[in-house]
Amino acid sequence: MTALQEKPKAVAPNGPPPRRRGKRATALAGTDKLVLALMLGVPTVVHLLFVWIPTLGSVALSFSEWNGIGGFEDIEWIGVGNYVEIFTEYPRFWPAVQHNLIWLLFLLVVPTSAGLLLAVLLDRELRFSRIYQSALYMPMVLSLALVGFIWQLIYTPDGGLLNSVLGLDKPVDWIGDSDINLYAVLVAAAWRHTGYIMLLYLAGLKSVDPALKEAAALDGASASQTFFRVTFPVMKPVNIVVAVVTVIEALRAFDIVYVINKGRNGLELLSVLVTDNIIGEASRIGRGSAVAVILLTISLGVIIPYLYQVFSKENRT
What we know:
Layout: H1 30-61, E1 64-65, E2 76-77, H2 81-88, H3 93-122, H4 129-141, H5 144-155, H6 161-166, H7 181-206, H8 210-218, H9 223-234, H10 236-251, H11 255-261, H12 270-279, H13 285-316
Antiparallel strand pairs: 1-2
Helix pairs in contact: 1-13, 2-13, 3-7, 3-10, 4-7, 5-7, 5-11, 7-10, 8-9, 10-13, 12-13
InterPro entries: ABC_transporter_permease (IPR051393), MetI-like (IPR000515), MetI-like_sf (IPR035906)
Main location: membrane
Transmembrane segments: 34-53, 101-122, 134-154, 180-203, 238-260, 290-308
């Protein structure tokens, strides 16, 4: 026998290796449960009270005829009568739809193009680009009501900034003339909307892979060809966001026209009709609710496809 014997090696078992037991989640303390309940419960209750309950109430009241006086027992249910009246007999409805469409087309063309151009220029890291970016975005911080007050001073016939700069013999009533006041207000809305579009496109340009531009340059593409055939298609998600934001902005436009002239004399919009019918002298809550439901339906026609695309893309990734 040898003096030293080798120690036998341990043989691994034939079965699978033992599974490691994961750590058990620590139970929430009583204070943590209270904080979590408040953080989830309070926003949920506020959301239900100020969004869903009024929305469902408007849908229900759109099938009724009620002037807001008395209790709920005084409500007369008339079915789809309000919708039939709006589409066939309400003289202000179709001009308001036309104005909303003009508003939408204008925002899609003018501020979107201007915002894209400004974003491309600022993306080149110009000198003082931070100052330019802040100055161009500043109008977006202002509310549409405040923008309306500012541009009222600019458009005032006597002593207004625009007429003083133009130096016309006969001052133009930019707000009072129903043939031009819609486009004058659209310029004011575009002044505010351009900065937001610029910021969205600037963020999109920063996210584009520089290797794509370098590859296009090596293939002999010019700067314009690189932008329209490489950069712009890559920014498809940003383009979708810009389109959705612009549509919503056009549909919810209310503050600026209501500040200027109560949304009348050529500035009728669907949102103005809702307000006029609900809190106006006639106080036709049923018809105002029906116009609100129509506006909501149009908005959902844009929002739902966008959300479907976003969530389906997340599920694919």
